[in-house]
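Justification of resources, computational component.

The compute hours requested in this renewal are based largely on the per-chain cost of generating structure records like the one below. Each record pairs the submitted sequence with a full structure-token output. That output is archived, and it is also reused by downstream analysis tasks.
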Amino acid sequence: MKYVPIPIAMLEVGRPLPIDIWSDTGQLLLKKGQPVVSEQHRDKLHAFNASSTPGDAMAWQRAYERMVHEMLRDGVDVQTIAQAPMPSRIREVDYVAGTALSGGWPDLQDVLRGILYQGGLAINPLSRLDGMARTVLKLLEADPDDALFRLFQMLGDNSLGYCSTHALLTGTISLLTADKLGLDPSVRRSLLDAALTQNIGMARDQDSLSRQNAAPTEWQRQLIADHAGRSADTLHKLGLEDEDTLDLVRWHHKPLHPEALPRNRMARRVLATADGFVAKMAARKSRTPMPAISAAKSIFAAAEGEAATVGGAMATSTGFYPPGTYVLLVNGDTAVVAQRGARANAPWVIPVMDKNSMPVTVYTCRDTHDPAWALVTPLNFQSVKVSVSADRVQRARARIPKA
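The structure output for this chain reads:
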């Protein structure tokens, strides 16, 4: 049998283990229910390359992801979550294959967060990332507007954690931009894999920074400066061998670096631009997030050559007012953008709050190209105090006349 290494550093001394622990050669080291009794005991587990069966490994990983989700939901501080050990209980549902990806974009976010938080200690991450990437490609192909809608809505909810939402949205925007630029289809998968994992070297700290009131400390600035290389090294140690993905991750903040692979130059520009674009629109306690059109102008306005080409393709791909973001209409209504329009500056929207700040209960798509429903200005997520149903938005979109 092939055994899967366990995250020994995340085992808490004295807590019973929920699975049998084996050496990588098949020797039983600890039975289910027994604890790690001391740091010396932990060292012995290291010496024997403590492992588990693949089924136990996957179930334990799902239990960890659920634990992190519940802690975030309950408002637990990110630093506390970062220090949380592996759970001592696994539910039966954690052993059901496929459960982790059955919920669409929100579930992808949960699974990815767990992998990114564990970093180099993640259990069997490459096969899970592969399944995740395939699901992203499938969902994006089926309905790109729904993908953008759900991910931008997640970006506006800081309680969900930032690192995995950032990764999924950056990957989605990168893929749409690559298609608009006509990049070789073979680039798509490496570009997506890199977007999902580019910050694995600082995922927990990325979430901490998103909730921090003060400016980054000197140590945090150094971490930000070093994280691309750390992420590439972490992925390599986890067994990732794809040269293009590692190249994109390592140089995603320095797309023109002389040591980078020449064949990935345009893909690196796409990833770097999408990374910055999403970051500027993300909620922060230390600053107000930018609307998409402002973020686009701040990145693309002075761009020339390749950078301008990438910026233009990205703005066209997402629209100046992407699905999932909010706008003020000429009649005073607040609306959520439901679908990209024929023009980047004229999306389809759904009024969700009238000029008197009363919720609109019937979802109806409106074309902002129509002067009666013209768009006046984008709005920040924080200024909209109404809950929006993504499923109801999707049903309303189905009633938009086909072009």
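Strands lie at 4-5, 21-22, 28-30, 51-52, 326-329, 334-339, 348-353, 366-367, 375-379. The chain has three domains: 4-54, 98-318, 326-397.
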